[in-house]
Design brief:
This protein is 41% helix and 13% strand. Strand 5, helix 5 and strand 6 form a beta-alpha-beta unit. Helix 1 packs across helix 7, helix 2 packs parallel to helix 4 and helix 3 packs parallel to helix 5.
Length: 280
């Protein structure tokens, strides 16, 4: 059934229960949007109670799956107005210890997943000369840190893709908006989903407490409640006059803003001093 003209049609990837995407789905639905909540497994997106949220199976690591899901939305709803590239996987640990296959999986989801989604939806946006594409990025895309270097690499690449889209979309229509959300600390299940263990041959065995603390850091201190984060993103996406180019939201975002004005070497010194001091 086609969505009412007054109800924006939203597609969100990585909408599994307990994560940022799940809260984004609920926040968009509360604003009167028709929301397609996608994930790889249907059982992880089957607990929504809002009638305007429609579960959709999509694997962002599969070209076929992404295109099939987008075509289904166009067929059912008649259009797609807002697309949120949220799907992501963690990738923690000393960069020398990250298995190549694990790194490939992170790149396939966090980087190529954004590109696959953009390639699937931009032809529809261009034909209508309007639409909003949103990438859920991270403060880690600006500054790598010890014990999370591979994850930072994926987010830096996702930022580059998104900022390139921001420029190239101008050739298609001034009403096609591309927003990069630079996410700080947000309470979600991303850290819980991180399957981490040091290999027996690791050169960093004595730093295991530091690594565990780094993995859990986004869930402690000034981390923002997921519902508050989602509401902030949705308000920006639906802003009168169009979504902004960049939204920085979540815990520690001010600190990382300051980091961008400091000499790179000083930032690396601060991060190592904070995260590299041996813990007991």
């Amino acid at each position: 059934m086609a969505a009412p003209p007054s109800s924006p049609v939203v597609l969100i990837t990585g909408s599994s229960h307990g994560g940022i995407g799940y809260s984004l789905c609920e926040a968009f639905a509360t604003k009167g949007c028709t929301v397609y909540a996608s994930a790889r497994r249907l059982e992880t997106i089957s607990t929504f109670s809002h009638p305007s949220i429609r579960p959709l199976v999509m694997d962002v690591t599969s070209d076929t799956s992404v295109h099939k899901a987008v075509e289904q939305i166009i067929e059912e709803a008649g259009r797609v107005d807002i697309i949120v590239a949220n799907a992501g996987v963690p990738c923690h640990g000393p960069i020398l210890d990250v298995p190549i296959e694990t790194a490939k999986q992170a790149l396939d989801t966090n980087v190529l997943g954004v590109l696959r989604l953009a390639r699937a939806v931009f032809p529809y946006m261009a034909s209508r000369k309007r639409g909003t594409f949103i990438t859920i990025g991270s403060v880690m895309g600006y500054n790598a840190s010890p014990w999370a270097g591979m994850y930072a690499a994926t987010k830096a690449a996702a930022h580059a893709i998104t900022e390139t889209l921001q420029m190239e979309a101008k050739a298609l229509s001034p009403d096609i908006r591309v927003m990069l959300v630079v996410t700080g600390g947000v309470k979600s299940n991303l850290a819980n989903n991180s399957q981490f263990a040091l290999p027996p041959t690791s050169l960093f065995q004595t730093y295991l407490p530091n690594i565990i603390a780094r993995i859990q850091s986004s869930q402690t201190g000034p981390s923002m409640p997921t519902a508050d984060y989602a509401q902030g993103v949705v308000n920006a996406a639906l802003r009168k006059g169009g979504a902004p180019r960049t939204l920085e939201i979540g815990g520690h975002t001010m600190l990382f803003k300051i980091f961008r004005w400091l000499p790179r070497g000083l930032v690396m010194f601060i991060l190592w001093r904070q995260l590299g001091r041996l813990r007991k």
